[in-house]
Amino acid sequence: MLAASFKRTKIVATIGPSSNSPQVLEELLLAGVNMFRLNFSHGTHEEHGQVAKYARHLSDKHGKPVAVLADIQGPKIRVGTLPIDGLPFVRGNVVRFQFGADYEASGVIPVQHDISKYLKNGERVFLRDGQVQIEVEKIQKQLITGKVLTPGIVFSNQGMNLPDTDLGGDILTPKDIADIEFAASQGVDYIGYSFVQTADDIHKLRERLVKLKCDAKIIAKIETAAAVENLEEIVAATDVIMVARGDLAIETKPEAVPAAQRRMIELGKQYRKPVIVATQMLESMIQSQQPTRAEVSDVATAVLEGTDAVMLSGETAMGLFPVEAVKMMKRVILYTEREEIAGRNNLPEWRDFGHERQNAISAAAVVLANQLPAKVIIAETSSGQTARNISALRPNMPIIMVTDHKRVYYQMAIVWGGKSYFAKDMKGATDHVIRQLKAAENITKGDAAVVASGNQPGLVGGTDKVVIKITE
Questions:
Q1: What is the distance between the alpha carbons of residues 373 and 60, in angstroms, rounded to a whole number?
Q2: What dotted CATH number matches 357-470?
Q3: Which residues contact 412 (CB under 8 A, 6 or more apart)?
Q4: What is the pTM of this model?
Q5: For residue 203, what are the CA distances in angstroms to 170, 227, 239, 393?
Q6: Where do the structural domains in the chain lie, given as residue ranges?
Q7: What is the torsional sign of CA 455, 458, 459, 462?
Q8: Is 420 helix (H, G, I), strand (E, B) or coil?
Q9: pLDDT the model gives residue 344
């Protein structure tokens, strides 16, 4: 059951033209991917649906769960059609924007959404991933006038960031709603929510998913200044946090991102919510078989800080070496984890862990496993919460997460330190797992396993006991 080279930190791979064939998807899974990310900013429903279908087939074929994430675009604002060679923005020049404008006919830069009702004088507008900066000087009806502060060339359909602007209200666009409905119909495991600003955004999406009878969990993408301000309440409301460093660096400032990343990882552990660190982790591998030393250090730092997962974007979606990028990321993770665990003491990472029964049982399991020491911790879980609670304490030994719910089996694929196991019947499931571990020579006679379970197998929230099992 356990791979010879067991990595605790999980890998998310974005699927695109370089990786959406059945053959490459299989290679990615076998190379170490734990979640396939479907980026709904690109591609068609048909293409995303095929990947989701392949993911399930490959999971069954190899007995290896891989979660499927539908990453919704959100209110990503873009300029419209501009001259084919791009439009120069000259420092000090005055420029004008308007929803639906025709640049060729009017000289006004088209915008794909009406942002005039949100902007205020003095606020900044960033274009082309922050390379071009404009300050708003006047808003008249839908026409926005601003002065260029930082020059550059902007091309058609490039993105706009409004770091000073409160978009307010429900941030889901009509496209997002259609994408969510499609993703729900495909049985995805996670919905990625872009440009979250408050916990209320999470609550509204959860209400929508309930109406769709969709049990996907929500990933809050932290990529706005408002989200950083409201971070703890967002973490408490969501299921998973993504450190979306690309837009976050533009919406705040680049030097603020490392500290924000560390805070998110700490809050994730405190609230028992997985954290994914994303954007430009091995960016140079889009075109090169080797990463830069800075990129390797970046991945290692995220692992040392305790993130649950690291994500590849363009590297696997459109890069020349998608499988090699995953293999490289796995190598960095494994080496870093070996060094980190060797220097770690055996005490769990205590923090405010709450006083609920499940939390106490999970903490007791980790303490007992460290003191024995046990070879594995086995968590019988119907919702996945017991496994996430144990994971948050970062035990030294692997966590075998046993569930009788197929959705939970897939969702737990990104839980730090864990391996999912699906049991059709929870009665006797742990004994079956132990026999499998012994057959695979992951444990031997006399080894101890600590089991967190309940007296009523399959009952959500029913974990109420810790048992030591000695391999016979």
A1: 33
A2: 3.40.1380.20
A3: 65, 381, 384, 387, 388, 401, 403, 418, 420
A4: 0.89
A5: 11, 14, 11, 27
A6: 10-74+171-342, 77-161, 357-470
A7: positive
A8: strand
A9: 61
Q: Are 30 and 61 in contact (CB under 8 A)?
A: no
10-74+171-342 architecture in CATH? Answer: Alpha-Beta Barrel (3.20)
C-alpha dihedral, 373 to 376 to 377 to 381, nearest 10°: -170
Task: State which fold the 77-161 domain adopts.
Answer: M1 Pyruvate Kinase; Domain 3 (2.40.33)
**Which residues is 126 bridged to in the sheet?**
133, 161
Residues forming the active site: 37, 78, 221, 279
415 closest CA partner among 221, 206, 265, 272:
272
Tokens for 365, please give them: 């399991």
Q: Which residues of 204-236 are buried (b: 16+ CB within 10 A; e: fewer)?
A: bbbebbeeeebebbbbbbbbbbbbbebbeebbe
**Is the distance from CB of 333 to CB of 299 less than 8 angstroms?**
yes
For residue range 324-362, list pLDDT tens digits in order. 999 999 999 999 999 877 656 555 555 555 556 667 888
Domains 10-74+171-342 and 77-161 share a fold: no
Q: How far apart are CA 299 and CA 409, in angstroms?
A: 26
